Amino acid sequence: MFIKEITVMNFENYFPLWSDLNIAQKKLISDNLITQVVKKGTIIHNGNLDCTGLLLVKSGQLRTYILSDEGREITLYRLFDMDMCLLSASCIMRSIQFEVTIEAEKDTDLWIIPAEIYKGIMKDSAPVANYTNELMATRFSDVMWLIEQIMWKSLDKRVASFLLEETSIEGTNELKITHETIANHLGSHREVITRMLRYFQSEGLVKLSRGKITILDSKRLETLQRS
């Protein structure tokens, strides 16, 4: 019981709508809240096969992506500390048919509000319903931004942007990442990414080694992604 109370108390500090819930709704969440600790590489949600529920990241990093019929991946967005994901509970919204896969990019602590619990509260609470709509709109804006990048930005700019984003996330210019991983994020082929990275290396932008990419010239990468 004591551990459960600590879990709920921590959740209160992360869930932005807690103060908008009534006593019964708070109890409903508290009684059904799921805590998970997942290892890097774990698939948390797998398309329409799951209706996992609302995810709230306590610490760690998740990746939300879609798969093509040929098995190619492309990252839609990532989730970090205190981020929430509703597409893992898209079954509660009849008009949305969106198959996504959610994977832990790092060891991650998270909470899950089961889909039916969240759906019931959303029906009875205007603040929760409004927040849900805002959250969904934000995620679809992420997807629309991605589509624009794919349609209008050349691959060299997208790779430059991705490398800069990774250095910001990891806090280092030495990225332990494979060409295959970058290809999966960008919806490309490993061979294409390898050719692009070798070009970057020939231009003095990066240094390539086994399983690692060292950023040598961030300013030129920034210029490239904006050009």
From TrEMBL:
<dbReference type="Pfam" id="PF13545">
    <property type="entry name" value="HTH_Crp_2"/>
</dbReference>
<dbReference type="InterPro" id="IPR014710">
    <property type="entry name" value="RmlC-like_jellyroll"/>
</dbReference>
<dbReference type="InterPro" id="IPR036388">
    <property type="entry name" value="WH-like_DNA-bd_sf"/>
</dbReference>
<dbReference type="InterPro" id="IPR018490">
    <property type="entry name" value="cNMP-bd_dom_sf"/>
</dbReference>
<protein>
    <submittedName>
        <fullName>Crp/Fnr family transcriptional regulator</fullName>
    </submittedName>
</protein>
<keyword id="KW-0804">Transcription</keyword>
<dbReference type="InterPro" id="IPR012318">
    <property type="entry name" value="HTH_CRP"/>
</dbReference>
<dbReference type="InterPro" id="IPR000595">
    <property type="entry name" value="cNMP-bd_dom"/>
</dbReference>
<keyword id="KW-0805">Transcription regulation</keyword>
<dbReference type="InterPro" id="IPR036390">
    <property type="entry name" value="WH_DNA-bd_sf"/>
</dbReference>
<dbReference type="Pfam" id="PF00027">
    <property type="entry name" value="cNMP_binding"/>
</dbReference>
<dbReference type="GO" id="GO:0003677">
    <property type="term" value="F:DNA binding"/>
</dbReference>
<keyword id="KW-0238">DNA-binding</keyword>
<feature type="domain" description="HTH crp-type">
    <location>
        <begin position="153"/>
        <end position="219"/>
    </location>
</feature>
<dbReference type="GO" id="GO:0006355">
    <property type="term" value="P:regulation of DNA-templated transcription"/>
</dbReference>
